[in-house]
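Sequence only, no structure available. Ideas?
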Amino acid sequence: MLKFYTNFLFVTLYRNFVTMAAVKPKVIFVLGGPGAGKGTQCQKLVEEFKFKHISAGDLLREERNKTGSEFGELIETHIRNGTIVPVEITCKLIDNAIQASNTKVFLIDGFPRNKDNLDGWLREMSDKTDLQFVLFFDCPIDTCAQRCLQRGAAGSGRSDDNIESVRKRIVTFNEDTLPIVRYYEEKNLVKKIDSSKTAEEVHSDVRTLLSYLKT
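Reply:
I predicted one. Tokens follow.
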């Protein structure tokens, strides 16, 4: 009888371990034009919901600033020109950030930004994560541009918060990122938020949308 209970306990513990190991981190892609408020709203969600915010742009800027980084110069060139860094680099940095955290839900901000990003994610990361949906902050381009320039004038410290870079980023968003939003819309995986409102109003809308994921 003791042997039976010992074996039963072992099997139960093993099944629980396998089940826990099989649980994939939940991912929400956060997309929107430059200045749409993605970073601001992600920070509010981190504070309230305890999600993990992973900004693809921040990861790239951190990597660019690392002494001796083999990708630093390449990343800086893309950031300055408003173009997109090769997906292999971005996916690697995102994967590292996910693996380094015990959080259950991850807000991946500013990714995937084009078809190459999407293809790379599907190839490298889709089996490792559970995509919930795309949180799309919809904001008029004029408003986005004004916010970026105001941020730059206030000393944001970002090399792309200037009129020339903002124009390039808007072109990149319209030509490369909006098709990704449409791709996920066809799969009924886009939750659209009007981000032209005040930060408090936008957060209220997002809070209602994400309440079921609160940990």
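Residues 8-21 have pLDDT under 50 and may be disordered.
Hope that gets you unstuck.
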